Every structure is written in C-alpha cells, then in structure tokens.
Amino acid sequence: MNQTANIKPQTPLGQAMFVCERPKVEYRGLSLKIVQLATKWGPIGIPLLLRFAWGIFFAALVFVIAFVWVVGRFINPLLPWFVRDVVVVVGLLAFVSIVAIIGIWGERKVSGRIQSRLGPMRTGAWHGWAQSLADGLKFVQKEDLIPQDADKPLFRLAPYVALVPAFCAYLAIPFGVGWVFHDSDVGLLFVLAMLAIEVLGVIMGGWASNSKWSLYGAMREGCQLVSYEIPMGLSLVAAVAWLGSLSLVELGRAQDGGWWSWLLFQNPFLFAAFFTYYIASLASCKRSPFDLPEGESELVAGFHTEYSGFRFVMFFFAEYMGMFAVSAVATVIFLGGWNSPVPGLASPLWFVIKSTFLVWVQMWVRWTLPRIRIDQVMHACVKYLLPFTLLLFVGSSLWQLYDNPDHRLFEGFAAVVRFGLGCLGLLLLGLYFAGAAYGFYHRNQLVGQMVRKHLPGA
Amino acid sequence: MLEAVIFFLLAGLAVAAGVAILLSTSIVRMAYWLITMLIAVGGLYFLLGAYFVGVIQILVYVGGVAVLLVFGVMLTSRQLAPKLRPGRGEVVWLALVGFVLLEALTLSILHTRWQQNAMAPANSVGEIGRSLLGEFLGPFELVSVLLLVAMLGAAYLARPKVPTQGPQHAKGTTVP
Amino acid sequence: MKEIELQYRHPPDLLDDGEIPSDIRTEELVLNMGPQHPSTHGVLRVVLQTDGELVLGATPYMGYLHRCAEKIAEKVTYRQFTPYTDRLDYLAAMNNNLGFALAVEKLGGIEVPPRADYLRVIFAELNRIASHLMATGSYGLDMGAFTPLVYCFREREWIMDLFEAACGARLTYSYITIGGVREDVPEGWGDKCREFLDYFEPKIAEYNDLLSFNHIFINRTGNVGICPPELAVAYGLTGPCLRGSGLAWDLRKATPYCRYHELDFDIPVGHGENGAVGDCWDRYFVRVQEMVQSVRIIRQALDKLADGPVQAKVPRVVKLPAGEVYYEVENPRGQLGFHLVSDGGTSPYRLKIRGPSFCNLSVLPVLAPNCLLADIAALLGSIDVVMGEVDR
Lengths: 458, 176, 392
Prior knowledge:
The complex is a heterotrimer. Chain A is built from 18 helices and no strands. Helices cover 70% and strands 0% of the residues of chain A. Among the domains of chain B are: 1-87, Up-down Bundle (Four Helix Bundle (Hemerythrin (Met), subunit A)); 124-158. Chain B is built from 6 helices and no strands. The relative contact order of chain B is 0.07. By secondary structure, chain C is α+β, with helices and mostly antiparallel strands. Chain C is built from 16 helices and 9 strands. Chain C has helices spanning 12-15, 69-73, 78-86, 93-108, 114-142, 147-167, 189-212, 215-221, 229-234, 240-244, 251-254, 280-304, 356-361, 364-367, 373-383, 387-391, and strands spanning 29-33, 45-51, 54-61, 176-177, 180-181, 323-331, 334-342, 350-354, 371-372. In chain C, a hairpin with a 2-residue loop joins strand 2 and strand 3 (54-61). Chain C starts with 11 loop residues before the first helix and ends with a helix. Classes of the chains: A mainly alpha, B mainly alpha, C alpha+beta. Chains A and C meet through helix 9, helix 12, helix 15 and helix 18 of A and strand 1, helix 5, helix 6, helix 7 and helix 8 of C.
C-alpha cells in the first residue's frame, strides 16, 4: 500500500503535471555488495578464473582431500571434543553443500543427455561444472521478495525449517566404520525423524505465501508425505527386524563380506522391500513421478511459487540433500553401506558411489515418467504399497523364523534362493551396464541426425 | 555445566512456546508454537539419554500429528480464519478448568517420589518393545482399537460430498 | 469478529441432508488459473471453482491475445492479409495460408496449377505434423513428462529447416499465397523431405512406447474428460477433438480440396482403448495417428509432384467480384473457416474467421466439473488450443 501511495506526486509541480513515478525498489542485504564487488573485480577475475578453471578445480579437490585427511589424522585427536564436533559438522556441511551443488548440476546434465541435449556447457570451461555456482551467485543477487499479504515471520522461517533438518539427518548417517558424527542406537529413526521435520518447512512456506497455488502444493506435500512415511517405515522395519538393530553403523557392519551378504539378497521379501522403500522414498523427497507438491504444469511451482532469491535456493538445497539422504539410508540398509562387493575393500568411497548411483536413478526416473495424479498417489499408497509392505514384513519375519539349523529343508531352500537373488542382482547390474554401454555407443544414432548436423562435436 | 545450559535453553524454549500458544490468536501460529514445544521436549529427552523416546517424539508428534494438525488448520481460509478470543462468559469457566488442571498437575508433581538419577535403560528399544507386547499388551491393543475407530470416523467424514455423474473417475475419490 | 458472507455454490439447505453437519461443511476455493500459467498454452485464463482438489466448475476467459485480425482484413488488400493469417494459429501457419488462399480463389474463380496444388498438400501436411508434434510433446509436459517434448521439438526442428529452405521463414511463412505458392522449392528439396519422412516414421513408434502406452500416462488421461459424440457435435468440435469422440469426419475426405481426393489415407478415430470413447487419451492418440497418415499423404504427393508452374496468373492487386463465400479447410486443430464478403473492391468488405480452437475451447466448462485439478491440465492439453486463434 505504501508503494502505491508513493506514486502520487509530492511536489506541486508534479501534482500539476501528474508525473507518474515508478516506486523506488530498495535492494537490501548482501546483494548490493556482491554486485558492487562483481562489477569492480569481475572483468579481471572471471576470465582468469575461467582460464584456470581446470587447474582450480583439481587443486581444490586435492586440497579438500588433503585437508580432510590431515584434520582427521593429526589435528582432530588433539582437539577438545566440542571443537572436534564443530570441525566435523563444518566438514559435513561442506559435504552436503557439495552434494547439493553437484546434484543440481548433475540433474541438468543428466536431463540434457536424456533429452538429447548437452545441458550446461559454458560456465566453468569443462561441461559447465560451475553452473550451480553461477546460479547461486545469481540467486544471491536477486531481491528477497516477500508477498505483501504473506505471513512474514513464517515465510522467512520456512526455508530454514526445510534445510536444517535435511542437514541434521546427515549427523547420524555413517559413511564408514568410524566415519559418523554420532553413532546412536536409534540412528535410523533419527534420520527418518529429521526427514519428517523437513515437511513442516514445506507446509509452512506453502501456507505463509498466501498464494493458492502454494497452498495446494503444501496440502499435497502434507498428505503425500504422511501417507508414504508408513510404507517407507514398514519396508525399513522388515530390514531392521532381520538384523535386529536400529543403529545404522550396526546395520552396515552386519553386511560385511561381499555382495551376497548384503541385506538386499537375503530373502525375496527383503529384495522387494528395497524397491518399496525406494518408491516410497521418491514420494518423500517429492521426486517424479510423485512431484505433485511442485508439479509445474499444474501448480506453477507449488509450495515455492512465491519464493525468490536465496530462500528459493534453500528449498532447492533441501530437496537435493534429502535425495542423497534417503539414498544413503537405502545404501546402508539394503546395499551393504560402505562394504565393497568383494570382501576386504570396505571404504567410504563405496558408500558415496552406491548412494550416488541411487540418486542418479532418481534423476533417471524423473526425466522419464509422467506425473501421477493425487488420488492415484493416495490409492497407490493405501491400496497397494501399504498392504504389500505389511506382507513383506510378515513374510520376512516368518522367513527368519524358519531359516535356521532347526529346519534343515527350509534352510537349504533359503540358501538356494539367496544364491538366486545374488545372481539376479548381478544380472540386473550387468544389464544396466550393458544398456549404458549400448546407449553410449549409439548415442549419435539416438540423438538423431538433426542434432548431429547442427552440433558437430556432440 | 554444558548440559545445564542446554537444559535451560530447551526448557525455556518449551515454556516460552507453551505461553506463546496461549497468547497467540492465529490458529496456524498456535500450531507452529506447539510444534516448537514438541521439538524442545524431544530435545529434553535426548538430553536425558532417552534417544528412542526423543526420536519417537519427533517422528510421531512432529512428523505425523503436527503435520496433520497444520494440514487441517491450513485448509481454513486465511481471511476467514477465526481469531480465537474467548467471550466474557467463557473466561470464567475456562479459568476454572485451567485452575483445576493446574492444581491437579502441581499436586501430582509435588507428591510424586522422584527417582534420582533417572536414566533410560541400556537397551531402551528392546525394553520398550518387550513391555509393550508383554506387560502392557491390553492397553496397547485398546489404543489400537481407538485409533482404528478414529480412522474409520475420519474416512466417513472425508467421503466425497459432491455427487458425481457418469463414468467420471472422480467417483470414490477421497478429496484431500 | 467481522461477519463475512460465505458464497456457497450449493445452497446450505441443499447440502444439509442430515448427513453432513453444517458446521464442518467446507467452502469452495476460487482459483484463478492463468493468464500466466504453464499449462494453459498461452494467455488463457480459466477461473476454477474447487473443493480441495476437486474442480466443481471452470470458466474460461479469453481476449488477452486479441489483435483485431478480422477488422484489419477490411483495411488491407487480399494479398496483404496473408501474413495476418500466419498469426492466427501460429503453429500451423501453412494451413491458415491455405484456407485463406482457397477462399479467395473460390470467390475469384482462380485456377491453381497442379504442381502448386501438390506443394500445398505437402506443406500443409508437413505443418500438420509439426503442429501435432508440438501438441503431443506439450501434452507430455502437461502430464509431467518433460522428455517427449524435447524429442518432439527435435523432429519439429527438421520440419522448420525444410520450411526455411523453401520460403526462408521458420514460423510465419506466408508461403501459400493466392494463386499458388510463392516460389518453387529449391532443387533437391524433395529428397530432403523424403529423408525426413524415413527418419520420422519409426520415431512415432518410439513416442508411443515412451508416452502413449506409458502406464502412468494412460492412467492420467484415460477416462478423463470424456466427450461423447453427441456432445462433440452439439458444441461444434472439429478436428482431432471430434475424431477422438469416435466420429470419422474429416474435410479432406468429406469435401476434398487441393488434390486430397487423389491421395489415399485413413481417418483415425478414437476407439476408447483405454477408457471411454472420447476421453483425453483418445484425442491425444488421434493426433499421433494423424501424423502417420500425414506421412503417407506426403509420400504420395511427392510421387505425383511433376514439373510445372507454381503460380497462376493473378494480378498484383487482387480484385474479387462482389459476393460472398464461406470456405473451410481441415486445420491440425479442426475446421478453419473463412467467411469472405466482397463488394468488388481490393479488400474484403467483411471477413469472419471460424477458429477451431475457439469452438473446441467452448466445451471446457462442460467437461471440467468433477475433474481433479490435475485433470484440467490434461483436458486443456487434449483440447489443444492455440490462443492466437481463439482470440484472433
């Protein structure tokens, strides 16, 4: 209202001529400083940065690895515990930020390749690796708009409520034996609880925006998440009951010794539970085909329609951190966590590779499937997924009851099934790699002559 | 020392949020203050070493109950959202009920023999599971029946209100 | 507390049937979809009355892209109006040019040479493919599948290249003019066109695998927005919307123009494979099948293309005898009609355009009630309106 009042001319001359002035927009915060700095140093700095992008990238990588190693090996044991905690939390924060940044860039590259495009190619010299950073810079410069009739405190708070729990989930996720911030005996439940709080931020933002589209997004998020938490939890309970622990470190450690000892291949019920968990986790991270809360063809942008600038980025970060977090849980529980496919090579690297693979599958699914309608989402959960996961839980428990030396016949049968499942897993992986290799070999054919003609290098 | 600081922080937050629930007039704000309080209480459980109870507090109350609460409250129109102000007659008996409740709680707190060094049992998850399915099986099952009744009631209320004609898919749709 | 009068769509006493207590009854939400909305395909504004996700009513509002095309026609000469027809249905500019040219030629009694006729058929059908590619691709986008859109654009790009080679423009061609086509296609154009057809035909099966027979897609579009044949006829639906309701009506067969009677093709209609006849999936799939038929037509027309002039002898400033004519052609979106009234001058006395999108859009308020919110996107996409033609 104030701004419309400003349009009315104040001076007598202005009143006489009715000069219609545009209301002045106040740019606040960090943005102005960054713009000033960028205009001052950008012409020198950015070309230099681009010229040495490769070198900077690798130097940063080497530096980060060396830093982590040195801190972990020498410095951390000397520090008092609370300083150590701060160091580890900062390290985790850096890790999840990198996950989000690489995730956003990766999503664009993946979508580009799937759609016979190239994705970002310019920013940062090598396949647009700096695109997310550039986008981040852009978002920081944007004005932090808040709709006039929004519930301002809640509107401001919502992105934090989404982002902070998504980060907190990482506090309990083990990257390896000893590579965990806090090894709690209820680590799994802690991760799920944190992911559940994340919903609140989305609902808060959707309601506080005072936009009907945001409200619809928040409503969908609410009912979708509350429903899908149940099959998600039940699939995990089947696994937890099999190993008898809620501690993620214990769960990971129990799967030591080669791919055949991963929980996924222990019995057919757990094999199916992995897939039900994965489907439910897609819904809980709002990923396609369950991306109804932000379905852009229906709800413009859903719960973050009214958000701009860095608050929007925070929602984005929360989404990618959540994606990696649910994949990490799936990795630890079903895919053997940090254990290598062949015994004796356990390393956090395996954990990151497996989780990244699951994140990539999420992207793959997103750019392939259409979106489900809200009633179908509910039906799929209540009518199919929920009874099925209950069945899996009961089946897995019964299997465990009979799979022991007291029942010789069943034990033999179980061993055969386990072997078969292991082979099936290998076959699936082999098929995936064969398909990927075929696609890579034939990508020119897939892309089509039209694109080849215009982009000789593609 | 640090634990005391954290305790007072969390306890203060819980109390402040509780007072804020009483004082705020917007129903959505109230819901969010309630959530703040629930999280703070969950933090207190963590501080006591009862990780399981703390996590379940957050998972069930914040992730489930509170989300549903906000979800329900959210559907009320923003412009038409009732500002909750008790009438003059209501104040009297509200005060009465509040006083009785306060008195009951205070008396029960004062007359309970508090155990010193209350710590959660070592294997809390297993203990809780055993006692739920052993000692307290009856109440546990009763609560399940109660929840089932509540669910059926909710499903009855949420059935489609607008009659649908023709073979439209919307028949039988539960409108969220 | 401020009392606010609640507006109920159903009066309270009607709803209060003793089952739902009046104090827990919910009110309706009026949702303003558009004119800036990703799935309204332009500047369409639809006001939705919703109860939760359930849509109780939809009212389309238009006029945001009104450019007075019909009034402009009265001020410019016949030749000068051709570029304005490009901008009606900007995704099928060739077909619009064809419709206007045919209307003028009928009133003026102008004979078009056979090569020009075949070229017109080829270009109209190529543009039909391009337009249907756009429609099917963006329909996938409406359903949340991004990738088919990009694939469809990839193929459409090739058609744009072919058009560019022939007339230099990629969107607004003004290529089919009064008396024929503006100029002959360059040498080797036919081979390029055949190359495209060979490339394109197997791709249609690919889209079917990717989108048309996708389980989720079928669930989203089958049994949604059912338009029975009687309703379709009553609301004057034409084009794929009419054929999707199971009626085999196509002007290229019914009242053949150009050389369509010499060419062999089928009229695809909706059979209700995945739901009732006339649902969104049928309308969508009719478009996919029409692309196959268009490829057939173009192949035949390319075979029959013989050397010859491409322009009849028409003076620079066309003067038509006094009289009136109404001419309809089959556009990708339906029947595009030009009602041309001439008083013997160099410009039309009155030109009325029947835009198929406008008539197709009129059925939206009938189909929309009792859909879910997401189905509105499905409905709008399956009706496939182009706002340039709705508003003119």
